[in-house]
Automatic annotation (TrEMBL):
Keywords: Membrane, Transmembrane, Transmembrane helix
Compartments reported by the entry: Membrane
GO MF annotations, alphabetized: voltage-gated potassium channel activity
Species whose genome carries this gene: Neobodo designis
UniProt domain Ion transport: residue ranges: 34-266
SUPFAM superfamilies in the record: Voltage-gated potassium channels
InterPro entries per record: Ion_trans_dom (IPR005821), KCNH_animal-type (IPR050818)
PANTHER family (alphabetical): POTASSIUM VOLTAGE-GATED CHANNEL PROTEIN EAG (PTHR10217:SF435), VOLTAGE AND LIGAND GATED POTASSIUM CHANNEL (PTHR10217)
Name of the protein: Ion transport domain-containing protein
A Gene Ontology biological process term: regulation of membrane potential
Membrane topology reported for the UniProt record: Multi-pass membrane protein
């Protein structure tokens, strides 16, 4: 209760309800759309660099400090804004502060607050920095779906076109995530895993861009089922099966979306 009170910006005095109007942001505020765009970009940046730092075990935290601070600040401001933004219910804008907080608490409040906890700072403070502690930043990935749905509501483009763009976006980011996880498997399993992926050269001797491109390529060909590299360890084998199953499901969905778009285009010509 005290935390919700703090978010609501209300001091617990007897005059609160009588003399103060709660600070509520209307859905009609133009700047709110620009803020959502800024948060969309922020989460996309997080989705690019956090898996990269975890998968490639990049422990040089000083080089990323400015970005990490900026992300935490953006996340913190966004929690405040979401806790004060009205929402729509049955075509009506709900601006009651308590109702807004209850709705936020039942949906995204917990993961949004958890994503703010700087576990990587604590690990660096004790002298054992691990990029895996950054994983909490990814708790906001689900917000990207919300932003796409909002775009679909206000855009003049056909919903099928937006769904295709969303599908391409999902494929690219999923390939990025999978490639980073596969790189992590290689690093953790050491020499036993390397020949399966790079042949005689060894992936650890390559530059970071080269390693990333190879991992990205591996994730794409494995998702499509055309992978020409044989997994050498049990972990690689299980992960390859898992990735192939994801790829089959994903591409089946995309084919269905494209088919729906073609059908709609044909119908519009009649």
């Amino acid at each position: 209760n005290s935390f919700c009170t703090l978010l609501a910006g209300a001091m617990p005095d007897a005059r609160s309800d009588e003399t103060r109007k709660p600070f509520v942001i209307s859905l009609k505020e133009v700047w709110r759309g620009y803020w959502d765009l800024a948060m969309f970009i922020t989460i996309v940046v997080v989705c690019i660099f956090v898996p990269l730092r975890i998968g490639f075990i990049l422990r040089e935290w000083q080089e990323w400090l400015a970005l990490d601070i900026a992300v935490v600040i953006m996340y913190g401001i966004d929690v405040f804004i979401k806790a004060h933004t009205a929402y729509e219910h049955d075509g009506e804008e709900i601006s009651d502060q308590k109702a807004i907080l209850r709705r936020y608490a039942r949906s995204w409040l917990v993961p949004d607050v958890l994503s703010l906890i700087p576990l990587e700072v604590f690990s660096a403070a004790i002298g054992h920095y691990e990029p895996a502690f950054l994983a909490g930043r990814l708790l906001r990935v689900g917000h990207l779906v919300t932003y796409f749905l909002a775009w679909e509501r206000v855009s003049s483009l056909k919903p099928s076109i937006i769904r295709i763009v969303k599908s391409i976006f999902v494929v690219i980011f999923l390939a990025h995530f999978i490639g980073c996880i596969f790189q992590l498997i290689i690093l953790l399993e050491g020499d036993a895993a390397k020949p399966a992926f790079t042949g005689s050269e060894g992936i650890l001797e390559k530059s970071l861009p080269s390693r990333y491109i190879r991992s990205f390529y591996w994730s794409f060909v494995t998702m499509t089922g055309y992978n020409n590299t044989d997994p050498q360890t049990q972990t690689e084998t299980i992960f390859s099966i898992f990735v192939t199953l994801i790829g089959i499901s994903l591409f089946a969905t995309i084919i269905g979306t494209v088919g729906s778009l073609v059908t709609n285009l044909d119908s519009s010509k009649l």
